[in-house]
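Run log, item B.
One chain of 246 residues. Sequence copied directly from the ordering sheet:
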Amino acid sequence: MKRKDKLKIVAKYYPRAFTTTDIVNKFFDIVEDHFDLEPRQLMLADSICSDDVNSIEYPTRAYEMLGPFKMGGLDGFPFTGITGMNAFAHHVPENGAVFIYYAPHIGISKLGEAGVINRIGQTKPSSCCGAAIAALTKLMNNEIKEDHITALDYQQNTIEQIFLKQKERIVGATNPLVEATEVMYQAIDERMQLLVEHTDYPCKYLMLMGGILINGDHDMGSLTECRRFDVIDLESKEKKDMLGFL
């Protein structure tokens, strides 16, 4: 499928989306031109959903970096927490950078339907993100109990609690799933900022890119609408907003 056709399909929901491959290519150009770094000087960590489609649609060029270290669980929430953040922070080259990409995900089919994709080898569409849709269904049916988090289903219960806190916003939206995905992004972003505050990085730069990861049908690949791209000089503590360069 042509790039322009992919962008047109998702534009109804995410008009500022690019293919994830395009984002990776632009990112490499930025780190080389502005920070004089090569891909092998970067330690990549991602906080994206453990859904297998994200492995299938992972951009090949991303593997030019070290990693990826996997921070995310269901729908991309950084469930590895402070222990995970500290672990990979100390795997980075000293003269390099930590690059963290985080995003909840949502499927959009070739027909433009949000919440479903056609996966490899299947003739019928399946849900994406399944965890978010399951939590949203429980929310709409008033089946989520406040503060109910179990050891047996900890990650899913956490998503349910995140949605419950924003119930009116989600239920009242024109498209509750798209709105729930926005709620999830904000929760991930807030948690990521908190984890960063409690971590020391023995390198030159910390790079944070957050957004919405959009999965397409098996012949579409993935797209990303970026919401944040910050680069922090860890010596001077200066933070640059690089979002406009993407």
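Observations after the first pass:
- Helices lie at 3-10, 20-35, 52-56, 81-89, 130-140, 154-165, 167-171, 176-197.
- The chain has one domain: 3-245.
Flagged for discussion on Thursday.
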